[in-house]
Amino acid sequence: MNKGSLIKELFSNIKTTGAVTFSSKSLVNKMLSFANFKGAKTIIELGGGDGSITRGIIERMEDDAQLLVFEISKAFCDNLRKEFKHKNIQIICDSAENMDRYLNGKSADLIFSSLPFSLIPKESRIEIYKKSRTHLDSQGYFIQICYSYLLKFQFANYFKSIKTAFTLKNFPPAFIMICN
Predict the structure, then answer these.
(1) Among 106, 148, 167, 169, which is most buried by a count of CB atoms within 10 Å?
(2) Are 89 and 42 in contact (CB under 8 A)?
(3) Which residues of 130-146 are buried (b: 16+ CB within 10 A; e: fewer)?
(4) The whole model's pTM is what?
(5) Helix, strand or coil for residue 97?
(6) Domain covering 3-8+24-179: architecture
(7) What is the pLDDT of residues 68-127, one digit of tens each?
(8) Is the model's pLDDT at 171 over the cut of 50?
(9) What are the domain boundaries of the chain?
(10) Nearest to 69 by CA among 47, 40, 95
């Protein structure tokens, strides 16, 4: 899938992508800088999109780590499967609400998310929060890109510690919530 097709998919599904453009390299680098990949064996990405965050995770993760990428857009999933053919990367065309079905009893060391929680129906959003908390290792981190600081208050119902960062080097500028 070429860049034009990816952009068309982004705009034609704005309610599920929640973005007007893909994450900038600066935003991805800043987001991933809050994670310790050393020893992280199970990593989850919620909202694979065009693969910009996926690429950054792959560059940093250890060779024996497993990455599960959840994406609900079939077009994005097909593109991600073409680009990332690694045996330790699983592209899952399913809602993050179902992450427990794919973990085989494991907990995640890191969860990265660019899901548009403001646009996700409340019941689904709550289920994703609960499962993220339940299936995150006690020493693990849930790291979220978002465009509204107010989401911090939703995360506070599920995570005991939340730090925030901000970057102007993205359009639009973005917050990063680092939760554990």
Answers:
(1) 167
(2) no
(3) ebbbebbbeebbbbbbb
(4) 0.89
(5) helix
(6) 3-Layer(aba) Sandwich (3.40)
(7) 999 999 999 999 999 999 999 999 999 999 999 999 999 999 999 999 998 899 999 999
(8) yes
(9) 3-8+24-179
(10) 47
Q: At what angle do helices 3-12 and 74-83 cross, to 10 degrees?
A: 150
Alpha carbon distance 9, 122 (integer Å)? 24
Rg (CA), the chain: 15
Distance in angstroms (rounded) separating the CA atoms of residues 27 and 122: 27
Q: What is the DSSP letter of 92?
A: E
Helices (H), the chain: 3-12, 14-17, 25-33, 52-60, 74-83, 122-134, 151-155
Strand, coil or helix: 141: strand
Q: Shortest CA distance to 76 belongs to which of 45, 101, 30, 104?
A: 45
Q: What is the identity of the amino acid at 39?
A: G
Residue 67 carries which side chain, given as an amino acid letter?
L
